[in-house]
Amino acid sequence: MANTGPAILNADESIREEARRERRSADQRLFAAMILFPILTAALGVVSTWLWSVERALTIGAWVFVFILYAVIWYKSSPKSEPVLALILANSDLRADVEALNELTAELEASEFVQAQKSNAAFYLRQMSAEYISQGLHVRDDLDEMLSDLLAPLYLMGGHLLEIDGKESWSFSVYLYSATDDVLRPVWRRRSPNHPSTGESRSWERGQGHVGKAFVDRRTLFTSDAHASDVAQLVEATGENQRNYDRDAYRSFASLPFGLTVDDSDQIPPTGVLVATSSQIGRFDIEMVELIQHFADTLGVIFALTKTDLDCLDRETRAKHDGDRDDDTDAN
What we know:
Layout (H helix, E strand, L loop, with lengths): L4 H50 L1 H22 L6 H52 L4 H11 L1 H5 L1 H4 L8 E9 L4 E9 L12 E2 L3 H9 L3 E3 L5 H7 L10 H4 L2 E7 L13 E7 L7 H20 L4 H22 L1
Antiparallel strand pairs: 1-2, 1-6, 2-3, 4-5, 5-6
Helix pairs in contact: 1-2, 1-3, 3-10
């Protein structure tokens, strides 16, 4: 079968061009009816007395001609006689306006959806934060339970909340800063079944990768395409932390530091970083990041009010394990 696409497009453009010419012609006739005819009528009125004295038939003929000319111009410029081509052009313009309105409506609906999710997340997070602030965080098990419960909407409802596609690889991770080792250590992670990474997550030094850079800069870093030259040079993993699947698995990301620091001049570092990644280009935009920011802010509040950090949790966990072993030895 022959490809008629270009011919159809050329024919459509030809019709549109013809319609534009008809529209310009109609505008010219309307100009003649609205401007030139009144001027001609006024001029004829001025000379009618003199012309009547010279030749009455000529005067009558001149006025008849003027009125016939007006009638023809009025008829040609009337919408009732507007050419079909001009109507086609007008319909095309209206269709473009409708498409623009449909796009605007879709954007507003998407924004309304995100705002509704933010409201729901805020209500959920208030309840969860009150519960864990009251009971405190004492050992690593408490931390894992809190993070799994608090961040459940992200990794269990990502398809609805963040419109995550079932085919893409995604992950959500929490890193806490260890003042003892001066590194960001992974303490919690959830990832899609098709994610290429295995085993424990990597630790990051200050300023290393997008996790370490977000921590040092004390501000959220996100990108819709990590392959962009201005992004890759800043956040690409190097050395032992580099993996062969990084470029495909972490195509877009958002790293959100959390903690109750006063301002950029505060010497107290953030408590940690909440990280979201996806293999899908364009997954994280400003609205999605603002939604995830609610979760990061809540983590900052919980850690601050429970006066908990990673080193404290590790000490308490070791002490608990040592105590459990002593109890087992005494029992034997």
